[in-house]
Write a structure and sequence with these properties.
about 260 residues; alpha/beta; Rossmann fold; Helicase, Ruva Protein, domain 3; seven-stranded mixed β-sheet; two-stranded antiparallel sheet; 9 helices; about 30% helix
């Protein structure tokens, strides 16, 4: 591990606890069936080594840090390492069929990784990742919770989210200032939500941008506050009170109101 220096600007915190790495690698629900797996940010290969022991996994890894790439190529010559920025990759060129994603995700870009995952949701049936505990709790939060927000709604629209276990700071080098958590996202059976998906994203993000306000106020950037739609008592609610289905209904109401206006 001394051959690779953790770089702050890349959000690197190298896992050094082998039992935690084993638990993460065993959280992929492939049940021994052949599966393609993409590991994000393998670093020094602590998680990679356990994945390579699985005979039915076709493993590829994407790593941005050239120092880590050199280390991986030297120590895991059987591993297909792609030196690239995951956020800029065309994931359709990595595997021709569906694939799982796994990794100790860089905390500074974890939300961006999940949004990219949404863009490729038909190709990614499952993700197992270690992220900041606060982000994991936010993603898994249910409507009515103070931590429920944009990421909760958008991810839960297409994935079942499980908070698997908490990971403490001392198992990393260097130790982060926050606790971590391992989560599993499994694609649900929703191929397409029953509304305009782009407007759905806009409604969710706009509503939570002013999460303490009632919907009639927080949604005013989309539709005028004096629009008759806001006479409905439904708009007395705040965004954290709405589950995914309610946001779908809301999106359809707003789209209808906008079309009538035109």
């Amino acid at each position: 591990m001394n051959q690779v220096r953790a770089k702050k600007h890349l959000g690197q915190h190298f896992l050094k606890d082998m039992e935690v790495a084993r638990r993460i690698s065993s959280s992929l629900p492939f049940d021994g069936q052949p599966v393609s797996v993409l590991e994000i940010g393998p670093g020094t290969g602590v998680l990679t080594q356990f994945l390579l022991q699985q005979p039915n996994i076709t493993l590829k890894a994407v790593e941005l840090d050239s120092e880590s790439v050199q280390y991986l190529n030297t120590n895991f010559p059987q591993l297909d390492v792609i030196e690239a920025d995951f956020l800029k990759m065309d994931l359709k060129t990595v595997f021709t069929d569906k694939f799982f994603v796994i990794g100790n995700l860089p905390y500074n870009i974890s939300s961006q990784i999940f949004f990219k995952m949404l863009e490729n949701k038909e190709s990614i049936p499952c993700l197992v990742g270690m992220i900041q505990k606060e982000v994991a709790e936010r993603m898994a939060a249910k409507a009515g919770s103070k931590t429920y927000g944009i990421l909760s709604v958008l991810m839960q629209a297409y994935y079942t989210i499980e908070y698997l276990f908490t990971v403490h700071e001392h198992v990393f080098d260097p130790p982060p200032k926050v606790k971590s958590a391992v989560i599993r996202l499994t694609r649900n059976d929703v191929s397409k939500i029953d509304c305009n998906e782009q407007l759905f994203k806009t409604v969710v993000k706009t509503a939570f941008n002013q999460r303490r306000k009632q919907l009639r106020n927080s949604l005013s950037p989309i539709i005028a506050k004096d629009h008759p739609i806001f006479n409905d008592v439904f708009f007395n609610k705040r965004p954290e009170q709405l589950d995914v289905a309610a946001f779908v209904t809301l999106t359809n109401q707003i789209e209808a109101a906008l079309q009538n206006k035109l």
